[in-house]
Amino acid sequence: MSGGMYLKRSARIWYLYFAIILLVFMCFLVNFGVWCPSENEQKLENLLSRYREQIKEKDQKYTEVKDSLRKSEKKVEDLILYLEVRGKNNRVFDKSMPVIYAITPTYYRGVQKAELTRLSQTFLHLPNFHWIVIEDSSSKTQLVADFLSQCGLSYTHLNILTPKEVKLKPDDPNWLKPRGVLQRNVGLSWLRKNLDPEVQPGVVYFADDDNTYDLKIFEQMRKTKVVSVWPVGLVGGLRFERPIVKNGKVTGWFTYWKPDRPFALDMAGFAVNLQLFFTYPEVEFSNYVKRGYQESTVLSGMMVTLDDLEPLADNCTKVLVWHTRTEAPKLTSEDKMKRKFGHGSDPNVEV
């Protein structure tokens, strides 16, 4: 065989090898979708379509959950309020009955725990009751915190310090300056921030810790529509002070001191529907009103008139609240014990 024929034969063999390799490479490209762009795009579109369907399904489920939550929003709000007003002692509240919110200012003194104990023993008998205790202090004291944690009541513990310029001095008569003003205002602020009278109706009562209360007055005040009123015993230098009622309406005030006040009643002698403090969110007590005008300032600020007043306690003929201030203890024997035995009673024993 000549060299030319051999070269031609070799070339044909190499062409055949190249054609086979090219064919195999094309098959590889076809199998992996590289050689057919239109088919590759179709596969990609199918994949994206599946993803879109999955996203659509998840969006639909999310919308269903969101709609379900929106429909039950009222129930969620009710539950939050329910948990809030239950306090730390798990007392159950009946939503069909208005809650009584008792605002009680308190300050450290020898009889403080005794006063709070006596008061709590009364409150324990009441259903749907929440106690808001506000200390006249720069911080919450351990004594009051421990007491409240064990009292068995639904409660809120707050504090605010009365500035020196408006605070009574130890030797001042109790009428010289208003007391508990900032503490009551902090209590009102808590009500406005944490409650909704549309969700849970309520009644607000300013229950000082040095008074005595008959349970019947709480059951009667629970029905307060605007402002309810009643007599208070052992106050104002009289056996009792009371609203004067004619034909079921309050027409004036039986009191010796300034009977011409718009509302000549004691702080313990009225309760207010919770809604009013939301209708008039700026109304509060003041350290700078005339003596005896705290009650009038608040009630007049909420546009209350005599016609709005609801007389309780058999048309204000029965005394169910008393100003029974505890006498300050005279601890003179403590000094005598120290002189005789070198020490007085154990300071670690809480009284």
Main attributes of the structure:
alpha/beta, 3-stranded antiparallel β-sheet, 17% strand, 42% helix
Notes on the protein architecture:
It contains eleven helices and twelve strands. The protein has one domain (75-322): Spore Coat Polysaccharide Biosynthesis Protein SpsA, Chain A. The protein is an alpha/beta fold. The chain is elongated, with a radius of gyration of 39 Å. The chain has a seven-stranded mixed beta sheet, sandwiched between helices. Residues 82-90 have low confidence and may be disordered. Strand 1, helix 4 (112-123) and strand 2 (129-135) form a beta-alpha-beta unit.
CATH topology: Spore Coat Polysaccharide Biosynthesis Protein SpsA, Chain A
Helical percentage: 40-55%
Shape: elongated
As for the number of domains, it is: 1
How does CATH name the architecture? Alpha-Beta Complex
What proportion of the residues form beta strands (DSSP E)? 15-25%
Question: Ranges with pLDDT <50 over ≥5 residues?
Answer: 82-90
**Helix/strand class:** alpha/beta
CA-based gyration radius:
39 Å
Measured between the Cα atoms of the first and last residue, the distance is: 130 Å
What is the N-to-C order of secondary-structure elements (H for helix, E for strand)? HHHEHEHEHEEHEEEEEHHEHEH
Biggest β-sheet description: 7 strands, mixed
CATH evolutionary superfamily: Spore Coat Polysaccharide Biosynthesis Protein SpsA, Chain A
